[in-house]
Amino acid sequence: MMEISVSDNGIGIPKNMHDEIFESFKQADPSITNKYGGTGLGLTLVKQYVEMHGGNIWVDSEEGAGSTFTFTIPSNSDLQQ
Description:
- By secondary structure, this protein is α+β, with helices and mostly antiparallel strands.
- It has helices at 33-36, 42-52, 76-79; strands at residues 2-8, 56-61, 67-73.
- A three-stranded antiparallel sheet has the order 1-3-2, covered by helices on one side.
């Protein structure tokens, strides 16, 4: 499996929202939608693509300390077996 992580230093995500943010139209803080836009579909689509390729995605985040999104997908050699 390949593991890829993407980090930011944004507002962070409360622990109680870590699973919910991957659901359609869910956002950690809907009030920021008015400021930054967005529908709450981006992470849902990413999760679907990752899982469609046999992978998994998760987030490590803390409010005020940014977020790290990590996903795994099979490498080419895994797909050929």
